[in-house]
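Objective 1b. Sequence-to-structure analysis of Metalloregulator ArsR/SmtB family transcription factor.
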Amino acid sequence: MQAPNSTQLETLVHQQLRECSPIFLALADPVRQDIIMMLTKHDSLNVAQIVERSPMSRSAISHHLKILKQAKLVTSTKIATEIYYCLDIEGPVQQLKDFLATTECIIEMKTAEAQ
């Protein structure tokens, strides 16, 4: 199999960047960063438990959880009448690693071409 050329890698990295955009958006907000940190310390939390640990309102926390869920950084499970959220970052972390690996390949190719 032939190694990808610069144009192919640039097309791939562009696609990967688009796929990572929801992750970047989710991670950019300090409130969502705080929620992620809360979830690293607990197996799962419901909205009320997150609100107890935050100065934000229930509706604001729900909004932030929706964005984290869309970015596939958290998953939810309904138990009785409550929805519990837990961190599930393996997929997004792999997406970011793939994006960085492709970017590094492009940099290496361009460096080699310049020499």
